[in-house]
Amino acid sequence: MATLTASEAESLAERHPDIFAVPLRKRLAGWLIGFGIVAYLSFAWWFFSVGQVLSGANWEIADAYMADWISYEIQPSLALKGNHLEITYPRFSPLGDNPDPDWVEKRMGTVEIPERGTPVTPDNGAAKAGAGFLGNMNSSNSGGFLGQLGTSAPGAATTAPANTPQEPVRREEAVLEATVHFGGEKSVEILPGLVRVQRGEEMLTFEIEDGRVIARDPLPDWAIQREPGAKVTAYLGFAGRVEIRDDVVKIRRRFLGWENFFFDTRSAFFGRSVGEVAHLVFFGERLDPDSSNTALAWQDFLNNTEWQHGDVWLKLFQTIVMAFVGTVFATLLAFPLAFAAARNINPNRAVNFLLKRFFDFLRSVDMLIWALFFTRAFGPGPLAGISAIFVTDTGTFGKLYSETLENIDDKQREGVRSVGAGPAEVQRYGVMPQVLPVFISQSLYFWESNTRSATIIGAVGAGGIGLKLWEAMRTNSDWENVAYMVLLILLVVFIFDNISNLLRRKLIGTDAAGTR
Amino acid sequence: MSVTNRPPVSLSPGHAIEVHWQALAARRRFYTIGGLLLMFAALSGSLWFANESNAGKFFDRLPYFFDFVGQLMPRDGWEVWRALFDLPSPYDDGSLKFDYPDGRVYVTDGFYIPEYFYDMLETINIALVSTLIGFGFGFVLCFLAASNLTSRRWLRWFVRRFMEILRAFPEIVIAGFFLAVLSIGAVPAIIAVAIHTIGALGKLFFEVVENADLRPEEGLRAVGANWVERVWFGIVPQVLPNFLSYGLLRLEINVRASTIIGAVGGGGIGEALRLSISRGHEAKTLAIVLLLFCTITAVDQFSAWLRRRIVGSQSFDFGRGD
What residue spans define the domains of chain A? Predict the structure, then answer.
């Protein structure tokens, strides 16, 4: 700022003593308030033990949950079975019943597996491994590593059955090695007894011997092993992570997007491209002889087990209905009551007072309490939500409307009365034209606001999408469903906000009524 | 307008006006009746749908509606007071229903706070802390969103959208997310309510700032004040009373909001209420409802009184602002 000379400042202060000589109390007030707020916040920090809660937080989980909003994981596990690998996917994997994704590169071969599935002892394992490599050679799949060993394999192969003559052995096609690609330069190569993790330039090699996981080189900070020989977890960024144990390698591969959003794995349309589905729906032969492809696709979409579109939309519609019906009924009931509560319209002071306290009561008991009560009375569902919104808003509207009525211009009423109108006509032509736009505007505003409230009270059982949202959150594994529902809610609130604004502008010209 | 385009053959001016007025009135009536019919259809359809998808049907449940009111009647009038002040009950049979002294929160050996008063205190503190946080952040953000103070369009656009997202994002989702990360307690409730408050207050604040008188700001600009000084000395003194008024309104809303968030796991009185209703503890439920009612009324009255002192009766508007 521009600076003044000392004499100028002094003369200024002399001319305006009331501004420059502020009493001490006033000068300190700002500091005192600031100090009070800081003191209160420190008290709150202690009262809610915020520090403790924050340090006890599981931020790693938070990361995973956030990622779940927009992505999904596929978790194959590759069991190390001595001479081969067994790749399994969890039940209800997003890839369907027989997943064979192209990012898991497998090299097959014939191996000998003990008939009774007895665990392979380490010494046995060495012999079996030899047999496996032989089988691999036969299957004409040649990698550099295998080719080298293959030359020494025949000897091992002949000795293997001799070592364990009493054990019945079956020969089977099995996975000998697998490479899991994580996109970019990241991949994990898994062989029986050996795991290589590649992340960009870096390459980690682990040997698995005698139930121990041994790293060949010192581990970088993205791979964690709590103690020597224990399991290793290697983090590959957003793409996922690998957990290497002595008997299994667990992969978590993350993909951006919402999995199986349209059709779940049981659907006939699962795994088909948009073009294929469109072709099937419009021109294809019936997949199910009982219904047309369009109906089938629609049913499969609505009953998608992971996304439950049909149910989500139904619940969302319930929420909308709750807000709409509750607001309309509250408006209808509050309208006559407000006339009785307004001092300038109903001269009976006792009725004015009682009605106003009644409105206060309805409002102050709070929507949550009403919601809990009506859930007990009607059972969970939208009726409880409607009743809760209706009761709370009757109080709110009653208060707002009666205040509006008390602020009207009396001249208009006098004019109507002076031409000999009866009491009802005075209200109709003297009062209504003044207040109706304001009333409607206030109701419209609360309609939109109730759409939000209905979401929240739904979580305590009063119907609508709230409960579904809450359940999805409680499982801690369906955050993508939460994201989907939040998006739908935001969309609905946005649309209703605009409708309500549009109607208000149409009805009263501007966004008046002072509800904001 | 179609009437004026017609040649006014053999019509007196008065008649033309009459015809025009009739046409307008008819159209108006048509819209009104059409709107009402549409409304009625939507309402009946909605009611039917709500009734169909409810667990209990309206007319089936109606005869039993007051049964649950009966279930809420305590065994005698004093039970409510005993539950409220954690006094021993003569009906104590060791069950949760009558274990009032069990919930006492001892401050010292002899002095205790009754359980529900403590819970209520927690809820009020959640509301207060989140309002303060929301006020602070909203205060900082609103000047960046006001078109008369921030000339960069992209910054304004960004800040406004940001606040809109904070406001529109369902509180319950934020609470649920932080409940999962931070474990059950008051902190997730504070975060959820505070985030919503930032958005809601920020919007109200920047509208106040846009209506502020810019002459003090111009004066400061003339003597070479920088942006922060112009805002702090030119705008803030004008808008602070309105800000405080909106902040107090928000506090009223947040007391209710933190009760609701409490009921879904955020601790405080909301949780106590939900548990006691679902377990059918009539005296406890009534005690909590009474306490909540008194507290909310008291907070509303206090806030209304303070607002009247701060801004006078003007801009004493009632709004939920979310």
Answer: 72-256, 309-508
Q: What's the CATH number for A309-508?
A: 1.10.3720.10
Alpha helices in chain B (DSSP H): 2-5, 13-53, 58-61, 67-71, 78-85, 115-145, 153-168, 171-182, 186-210, 215-222, 227-229, 236-261, 269-279, 282-311
Helix (H, G, I), strand (E, B) or coil at B165: helix
Is the CB of A460 less than 8 angstroms away from the CB of B263? yes
B225–A1: do the CB atoms touch at under 8 Å? yes
| pTM of model > 0.95 | no
Q: Which sign, positive or negative, has the C-alpha torsion B206, B210, B213, B214?
A: positive
Measured in angstroms, the CA of A503 and the nearest CA of chain B are apart by: 12
User: What is the predicted ipTM?
Assistant: 0.81
Q: What is the DSSP string of B86-121?
A: TPPPTT--SSGGG-GGGG-EESSSS-EE-HHHHHHH
The CA distance from B131 to A159, in Å, is 79
Q: Looking at per-residue confidence, does B319 or B298 come out higher?
A: B298
Q: Chain A residue with minimal CA distance to B177?
A: A473
Indicate yes or no: CB of B318 within 8 angstroms of CB of A399: yes
Please state the φ and ψ torsions of residue A170, each to the nearest 5 degrees. Answer: -115, 150
pLDDT in tens, A184-200: 788 888 888 888 888 88
Which range among A412-426, B70-84, B166-180 shows the weakest confidence by mean pLDDT?
B70-84
Written as six digits, the tokens of A157 are 């192969």
% pLDDT > 90, chain B: 34
Which chain B residues are within 8 Å of A397, Cβ to Cβ? none
As a whole number of angstroms, the distance between CA A128 and CA A114 comes to: 10
pLDDT, tens digit (0-9, with 9 covering 90-100), for A99-118:
778 888 888 888 877 766 55
Contact yes or no for B43 and A452 at CB 8 A: no
Q: Chains A, B: CB contacts under 8 A, how many?
A: 192
Q: Helix B153-168 and helix A479-508: axis angle, to 10°?
A: 110
Compute the distance between CA of residue A509 and CA of residue B13 in angstroms, rounded to an integer: 30
Closest approach of chain B CAs to the CA of A253, in angstroms?
22
The bridge status of strand A223-225 relative to strand A232-235 is antiparallel
DSSP string, A127-151: HHHHHHHHHHHHTT---HHHHHHHT
Partner-chain residue, chosen from B187, B204, B256, that has the shortest CB–CB distance to A53: B187
| Mutate: best of B220, B264, B277, B306, partner A, most A CBs <10 A | B264
Do residue B50 and residue A57 have CB atoms under 8 angstroms apart? no
| Contact list, A360 vs chain B (CB under 8 Å) | 297
Please report the pLDDT score of residue A36 as a whole number.
94
Answer yes or no: do A376 and B68 touch at CB < 8 A.
Answer: yes
The secondary structure of residue A379, as a DSSP letter, is -
Nearest CA in chain A to B249: A516
Pair type for strands A240-244 and A71-74: unpaired
Reported as a single tens digit per residue, the pLDDT across B28-58 is 899 889 989 999 999 999 988 888 888 777 7
Q: Would the pLDDT of A145 be above 50?
A: no
Q: Mean pLDDT score of chain B, rounded to an integer?
A: 85
